[in-house]
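Bit of a strange request maybe. I'm writing a small parser for C-alpha cell strings and I need a real example to test against, not something I typed by hand. Could someone generate the C-alpha cells for this chain?
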Amino acid sequence: MNRHLISAADLSRQDALDILDTAEELAGLAGRQIPKLPTLRGRTVVNLFYEDSTRTRTSFEVAAKRLSADVINFSAKGSSVAKGESLKDTALTLQAMGADAVVIRHGASGAPHRLARWVAGSVINAGDGTHEHPTQALLDAFTIRRRLGRVDGLRVAIVGDVLHSRVARSNVWLLHTLGAKVTLVAPPTLLPVAVGSWPCATSYDLPAVLPVSDVVMMLRVQRERMADAYFPSVREYSRRYGLDADRLALLPGHAIVMHPGPMNRGVEIAADVADSPRSTVVEQVANGVAVRMAVLYLLLGGGTAGAATGDDRG
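Reply from user aminoacidic:
Good idea to test on real output. This should exercise your parser:
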C-alpha cells in the first residue's frame, strides 16, 4: 500500500483485497474476552475532524485502541481552529507532537491531499467535501463480500444524491477495481457533470434497475449541501427514487440493501426496508471497525493478514 489512503482510486486490486482479507482476520477479535492486539503500541493516531461525525470518528477511535495505539481526538470546535488557525499550522502542530497517522474529515475537497504534504505520518481520508470517503467504500465492499461471498461480477445500484456524495464516488472506483458492475440511479439534477468519465453506467429509472441488481445502495439526500432546488419536493423525490416495500419486492431474492448512514427514513428508504433482514445497515457499522483496523495496521504496522492476529499458518 501507499503511505496514505486519500482516494479509493489509488488502491490497486491487490491493495483492496489485502485490506479486506486483513479485516476478515481482525473481525474475529470482537469475540475475544479482551478484543485488543499490541500491534500499534507506542504509535499515535490523531482524529482530526472539521465536520461532525458519529460513526466514522468513533469507528476509527475504537479501531486504533483495539490495536493499542494512543488516540488523540481533535475537533475543530473548541480548538485553535475556532480562533482562525489554518490547516497547515494545525498540521505542523500535530507533526511536532509526533503523530504517526492523521485521520482527517474536512468540508473542503482536497484537504487530505494538502495535509499529506505537511506531515511525515500517514494521512487517511475520512471524508473531504463532496470528493471521497475511501474507508466507507472499503467497509461497504467488505459487507458485500461477507453477505454474498464475492464482489467480482456483482451488479450494484447506487441510488440517490450522487452529486453531493463522497461515498458514491469512492464506491464507484473501488467496486470497479474489484470487478463489480456499478449503475448510478438518480434524477439528472443529482448526477455530476463529469459522471460520463466514471467507470459506471447511469439510469434515471429505479424500478427498471432493481430486478437486475445484486446490491442496492441508497444514499442520503444531503439537503444541508443544497443551495438550489434539485427536485420539486421531498415527497416527489421519495415517490420516484425512494426504496419502499413494493420496490424491495422487485429485487432478486438474494439481493441486499445498503445505506452508509445517517438515514432519512421515509425519504430515500422506508423504515420497514431499513429494518428488514435484507438490510445491512447495522452490519456496515460493525464492519467499519474491522476495516479501519486493517487500514491502520497495514499503513502503520505492516505484515500479512495472519500476522495481524498472531495466526501463523504459513
